[in-house]
Amino acid sequence: MTAPLAEERLSRILELLAQHGTLRTTALTQLLGVSGATTRRDLDTLALRGQIRKLHGGASLPEGAAQPNQDQFYRDRQQINRGGKEKLAAAALGLIESGQTIYLDAGTTALAVAQALRSAPHLTRTLRVVTHGVDVAYELNGECALHVIGGEVYGSTYSITGLEALQAIGRYHYDLFLVGCTSIDPAGNLTNSNLIEAQQKAAIMGRARKSVLIADQSKWGQAGFATFAQPSDLSAWVTDAAPAPALAVFESAGVQVIQAG
Fold first, then answer.
1. How many C-beta atoms surround the C-beta of residue 238 within 10 A?
2. Where is the HTH deoR-type domain positioned along the sequence (predicted)?
3. Which of 108, 69, 115, 68 is nearest to 90 (CA)?
4. How far apart are CA 52 and CA 242, in angstroms?
5. Residue 235 in contact with residue 212, Cβ under 8 Å?
6. What is the model's pTM?
7. How does DSSP assign 165-211, residue by residue?
8. Architecture in CATH of 80-259
9. Dist CA 246 CA 187 (whole Å)
10. Measuring CA to CA, which residue among 250, 212, 252 is closest to residue 234?
11. How far apart are CA 241 and CA 249, in angstroms?
12. Which pLDDT band holds residue 153 (cuts at 50, 70, 90)?
């Protein structure tokens, strides 16, 4: 069985092939932010499943294949360690204070936090929540003062991105940013598979008094394409369970680690 982070990477490869048609292995390696050996193993896995066609030095989707469904990619990611995400989401609510302005990230972990907030109306009704997450906004509509950042919708994460979004982010200040990531590298740096989203997360962190990482244990140990933060940029990390090396890295940087598992 492939690990959760590996499944996210496989989905990303299919998205990239749908966008570009054919890609060389070296290009995929750079876009994914992994080693060449990892990319080749991923391509072997997808080829065995019949989802791609391997070429000399690259890959493409099979001839006549239907375009990958971005909505299904997103829904599939919701099921990865769903129990862990629900536990850490409930724990994250303990860091939110009544009356705060919260920036809640996009993505499946942020969605779990939004669902937890909806179950705590005594707190949620006092908050102002800002988000660029389409699903997050839908979940919290009518539950609090809600501000949605405008821009272009990035389908694979149900997020709103682009220059317009970056400009809007810079107009506000936030008490707390609950930030997700694609992965956490062995040095504890937060990474994302999409450069524009990484820039957006960095911009939000620059406007927030505190930033708290919301990420389950499956995110640890590999570098994504774009780095947007170091452990020292965080006040806390809320997770279902922190692997021992991760715990050592974050605690040495003075980051509070809250394990909800």
1. 27
2. 6-61
3. 115
4. 34
5. yes
6. 0.77
7. HHHHHTT--EEEEEE--SEE-TT--EEES-HHHHHHHHHHHHHEEEE
8. 3-Layer(aba) Sandwich (3.40)
9. 8
10. 212
11. 14
12. confident
Instruction: Tell me the C-alpha distance between 165 and 163, whole Å.
Output: 5
Q: How much is the pLDDT for 82?
A: 83
The 3-state secondary structure of 143-177 reads CCEEEECCCEEECCCCEEECHHHHHHHCCCCEEEE
Name the token pair of 63: 């001839």
* Spans of all domains in the chain: 4-68, 80-259
Rounded CA separation 69/245 (Å): 36
Place of tokens 């050592």: 248
Q: Which CATH number fits domain 4-68: 1.10.10.10, 3.40.605.10, 3.40.50.2000, 1.10.238.10?
A: 1.10.10.10
Average pLDDT value for the chain: 88
Give the whole-angstrom CA distance, residue 103 versus residue 130: 5
DSSP 235: S
Token digits for 25?
């292995």
118's tokens:
């909806």
Distance (Å, whole) CA 142 – CA 150: 18
Asked if residue 242 lies in contact with residue 259, where contact means CB atoms within 8 angstroms, the answer is yes
Q: Facing residues of 237 across strands?
A: 213, 257
Instruction: Determine contact, residues 229/14, Cβ cutoff 8 Å.
Output: no
CA 56 to chain centre: 32
Residue 129, classified by CB atoms within 10 Å of its CB into exposed (0-12), middle (13-18) or buried (19+), is: buried
